Amino acid sequence: MPLSKENLDELLAVVARFVKERLVPLEASVAENDKVPDAVIDEMKAMGLFGMSIPEEHGGLGLTMEEEVRVAFELGHTSPVFRSTLGTNNGIGSQAIIMFGTPEQKKRYLPFLASGEIIGSFALTEPEAGSDAGSVRTKARRDGDHYVITGTKRYITNAPKAGVFSVFARTDPGTPGPKGMSAFLVPAGLPGIEIGQPEKKMGQHGTYVSDVVFNDVRVPLDALLGGVEGQGFKAAMQVLDRGRLHISAVCVGVAERLIKDSVHYANQRKQFGKPISDFQLIQAMLADSYAEMLAAKSMVLETARRRDKGEDVNVDASASKMFASEMVGRVADRAVQIHGGAGYIADYGIERFYRDVRLFRLYEGTTQIQQIIIARALIRADS
Question: Which terminus of the chain has a lower count of CB atoms within 10 Å, N or C?
Answer without folding.
Answer: C
